[in-house]
Amino acid sequence: MNLFRHAIVPFALALGILGLGGALHADERGDHDIARQALQQGQVLPLRQVLDKVEREYQGQVLKIEFERDDGRYVYDIRLLQRDGRMAKLKVDAVDGRVLKIKRKGD
Predict the structure, then answer these.
(1) Domain tally, the chain
(2) 47, 18 in Cβ contact below 8 A?
(3) Sign (positive/negative) of CA torsion 62, 66, 67, 68?
(4) Where do the H-state alpha helices sit in the chain?
(5) pTM higher than 0.70, yes or no?
(6) pLDDT digits (tens, 9 = 90+) for 53-90
(7) Is there a contact between 68 and 17 (Cβ–Cβ < 8 Å)?
């Protein structure tokens, strides 16, 4: 599974649609360009760097990732299946990798 994750992340970045489970929709193509441009200009951290931190600190498997602009800031919305079986949704600042918000099913 680790090899699959390492292969899919660059692919997702290349597509610019940072959702591993979804299809590329026409309205998401603008997000692709924004994500790529922000990364190239050094305005956001690379997804791999953010995922390494999230997986280390929250102990789980990333299921879905979205890149968006929320209240003027770039964020990664990450859905994580934690080792205890609970689902967690994290909103991570794409600029510095800080977890801004976390919701867990059952909390």
Answers:
(1) 1
(2) yes
(3) negative
(4) 2-15, 29-40, 47-58
(5) no
(6) 998 898 889 999 999 888 889 999 999 999 889 999 99
(7) no
